[in-house]
Structures are given as C-alpha cells and as structure tokens.
Amino acid sequence: MEVRTLTSSLAGAQADAVVVGVYAEEKLSAPAREVDEAIGGLLTRLIEAKEISGKGNEVFTLWGQSGVKAKQIVTVGMGPRASRDAGAVHRAAGAAARAISSKARGTVAFALDDDLEAAAIDSGVAGAMVGCQGQDLFRAERRQHPFQEILWWKGEATSLERGRVLGECVNFTRRLVNQPAQDIYPESFAQVASEMAGQCGLTAEVWDLARLEAERCGALLAVARGSAREPRLVIVRHQGASEVAPTLALVGKGVTFDSGGLSIKPSDSMKTMKCDMAGAATVLGAMRAIGLLKLPVNVVGLMGLVENMTGPAAYKLGDVLTARSGKTIEVLNTDAEGRLVLADVLDVAQSGGADRIIDLATLTGACVVALGTEVAGLMTNDQTWCDQLSTAAAACGESVWQLPMFAEYDELIQSEVADIKNIGQGRWGGAITAAKLLEQFVGGLPWTHIDIAGPAFRDSAKPWCDAGASGAMVRTLVEVVRRLGEPAS
Ligand code: BES
Ligand code: MN
Ligand code: ZN
User: Fold this and answer.
1) Ligand 1 pocket check: which of 272, 363, 367 to mutate, most ligand atoms within 8 Å of Cβ?
2) What share of the chain in percent tops pLDDT 90?
3) pTM
4) Ligand 3 centre from 259 Cα, in Å?
C-alpha cells in the first residue's frame, strides 16, 4: 500500500473516497468544514438532523456530491475533542477504512483534522492500513479489500512513512497469527522469519532440534515432544547502534498450536489456539518495523517455536524437566506449556548478553479473566522499565495494565519434588503465578512480561478491525525502541 501526502484541496482530491473527522460536541473538524462548504452545507444539515453525531467511530457515507471530485464522502466520529489521543485517531481511521473496504477502492484520502500531533498521524495511518485488511485469507469473495493508496492531509513525510511501516508490520503479524496451524508450524514460521529478515536488513539464526538438544533446552524440548513437528528457536538481530551499546531482547511465545497436550483442552477452548504463537509473531512484526525504520538501538528478537500436542512421546504429568538454566520444573499440567518454552528462551536471551528484556505471550486465560479481552497485562521485576513500557503504550493508544508481583506469590510455585512447578496453587492469580515462573529465568535483568492472551485474537470484529488476530502491542514495542534510541535529555 502506498501512502502519500494529499497536496490538492479536499474538494479536488483525486480519490475514490474522502474521509473527514467529526467531533462529538463542536462537530465539524477543519477539513469537514471545507468539505461542508463545497457541498452547500449538507454536512451541517445532517448534523442538525442528528444523522451524524460525532460519536467515536461512527461512519456516515454520502455519494455523488457535485462539489467534491471523489465519488464518496465519508464522515467518521472522533468522539470528544478533549479525549482525542493516538488511540482514538487509530480507531477512527480504522473504522472508516473498514467500512469503505467492503468494496474494492483505489485511492482513499484521509483528513481527520488539521492539527493532529505527529504521534496521532502515524497511529492514524497505521489504523487505516489495519482497518482495510481483513482476515478472510481463504475466501473466494473477500469481505474486505485493502486500498491501493492512502492520501493523508497535512502529514509530514516522516510520520506518514512511519505510519506506513507500522501498519504494514501490524498486518504482517496479523496475517501470521491468522494463518492456521496446518500452514504455520515451527519450521515454516522459522522460514518466514528468515526470509523477512533478509529483506529488512536483519540477520536471522535458526536453532534446529539438534542445536536445541546441544543447548540442553529441556523445558522447550519437553513441550515439543508430543508433536510430529520439530521445534525451532529463531533469533533475529537488528544492529542499530555500536557493538558496545546495550541490547534489548524481545522474547516471544511461539506455540503454533496449543491442544493442551495430555491435559487436553475442551474443543471450544482449542478452536482458536492457532493464535498461541501471537507473542512470537508480535516480536517478528516489531523486529520488521525496527529494521525498516533503522532505529538506532541494538535489538534481538528470540522466538521459541513448538507445537503442544498429545503424540506418543508427549511429556507427562509428574515429569520433572531440567531447563537450560539448570533449574528443575515439575509438570503438573501440560497445558501450562508457554512458561516452559519461555523459561528456556529467556535463559538464552539472558545468557546471550541482553541488557534488558521484554517478553510477549498468550500465556494465561487468567489474565483475560482479570483484565478483559482488550487489555494486555504487564508484570515486572523492575518498575522503571515497566513504566517505560506503559508510557510507550499510552503514546500509541494501546491498553495495558500492570498486575503485582508480590513476593508472597513465589510460594505458590514451590514444588515438593523439584525446584519449582509449572502451575500455581489452585487457579487464583494464574496470570501472576505464570509470570513468577518466568521471573526465575531472567537472571535478575530488568524484565517486563506482557500477557496478550486477551487482546491478541478477537472472536468478533471491532468497528476498526476485523475479527481474528489484532497485531496488539507491535506498535508499542516499536515505540519503546524508538524512545530508547532518543538521546537522553
Ligand atoms: N495458550 C493458553 C492461554 C490462552 C488462553 C491464550 C486463552 C489465549 C486465549 C495457555 O497455554 C494455557 O493453556 N494456559 C492455561 C494455564 C493453566 C493450565 C495453569 C490456562 O490459562 O488455562
Ligand atoms: Mn496451554
Ligand atoms: Zn498456550
């Protein structure tokens, strides 16, 4: 998809559709006023008639107005002006894009307002690109048709380009997560990662079964044993700063299908478990953006890829695994597999010279119970590092909320037979007990865990984004890295 600045007037724009923003109270934004004048005050009359309200993400379409070159004029509700942030702009652009994309369009011009901050512009451009891309990969008749070109009113070329890269990388992650487990399994994911790395100035290293065995990744390997698919560990590197500069590690859970293993899931809970590699796909999408934007930071992305199945060699309840770090873990539920995979990958990150770590995982249903489907959970051993992440999330309008890591919770993963066990005492606080296990493998480095079990995959569409994979947290990760690269002030 191309993204360019709209240089002509709105009325004269060479586009199939022109999208203008309308607010909840004062209604017409500056570009909406310009369009309103060109069409003889029709928007004003529609607002008076309460057909257009300015409520967030409300879309209204007008056809064939002679004062405007574009066939279609679309208004989108921006909500109250006072609460207009990057997230609101992202959703408004997405909602308009999703509505328009029900039919094939060439060029769509967006003019939500003329005073958007740079951060809101790149969120808006990304929102438009995400909004017009659907999950219907296998349908003969697509429900959504991505635009060929987006024109953006009054945007600096650098923000538009950043928005374009972000939108493309969020869609890259969404596509990878939406692809079923028949197509995306550890080996094929690693293939996608290697190809992508080559195209985006990154280097990729893939650990196969033999290497994982040589590295004694006993926890990850145990999870993989029940599957006919071999596991992989993918390491993607972006060298954006000098060799002595600190390195950020992004670690992703890549369970390409989670059947639960012998602690098998009920069918209803299993049907969307192709999404259980969303952590890894989020890391890969963010690495792609970091490479394309050439951010001046050293970042390494590590993705632990396995399929959790029930084959004859599957790991069993009561098994005691020796993780790469040497710690022993008693398995009391084979469906608590993500933390086992991450235990080894975090150890690889930590022992490989990372200076700080973020991990992402569709780790626990408990996190979804705690925070709902739209909010990612943050758990940390370093408040400053966690705050940096929260600030970055807020700047791009993604919702995160921190859960506590009180020392009391450490007791809940104590085992009678091994150093630790892979589930807590009963189901309470399940998001936190999972994080407590991860914490054992980060070697005391500043670390924040992001549980994306809620937001990574939606059962039903939002006005601004189709159902299925959301690409949640890709933009936040890129924003964290962008901020790390800014000269200290
Ligand atoms: N992949 C699941 C978590 C999940 C749930 C992701 C819902 C996306 C949506 C994870 O591996 C899992 O099964 N967790 C168990 C842990 C339990 C056995 C301690 C859970 O949440 O029930
Ligand atoms: Mn599981
Ligand atoms: Zn899982």
Assistant:
1) 363
2) 96
3) 0.98
4) 8
